[in-house]
Amino acid sequence: MPNPWVFIGLFIIIAAIIPIGAIVVALILGPKKPNPIKQSTYECGLETVGDSLVQFKAQYYVFALAFLIFDVEAVFLFPWAIAMNKMPLYVALEGVIFIVILVAGLVYTWRKGALEWV
Asked: Which of 28, 58, 83, 95 has the most crowded Cβ, counting Cβ within 10 A?
């Protein structure tokens, strides 16, 4: 029987070759006819007014990132809560530790002011 790591290595190699191959084929076979209209900034069918490169506040990014982190953690907690009555006591303690870490992250984010709208 072959080593199971061989299959993982082959999977990683194939997973890298397929998207790289698709990009290379698109670069080789794709049309190359740039013109000013194709190079212009396009936004919702309207001509842009002013500079098209507008900097967004980093605060929006941090707020979205904090939301995403806690949203994903809720996905991890849901199956744990559903199967709670079928698991031993140490699983409940691990869940409590997980929730404590989440609360610590929330307190840290709150104290840093990332949840305040300015």
From this structure: 95
Question: Nearest-CA neighbor of 101 among 76, 79, 64, 84?
Answer: 76
Block mean pLDDT (10 aa), the chain, length 118: 86 96 94 82 66 70 80 84 85 88 86 77
CB burial class (10 A; 0-12, 13-18, 19+) of residue 72? Answer: exposed
What is the pLDDT, as a whole number, of residue 52?
61
CATH top class, domain 4-112? mainly alpha
**89 vs 85: CA distance, rounded Å:** 10
Q: φ and ψ at 44, to 5 degrees? A: 55, 30
3-state secondary structure 50-86: CCCCCCCCHHHHHHHHHHHHHHHHHHHHHHHHHCHHH
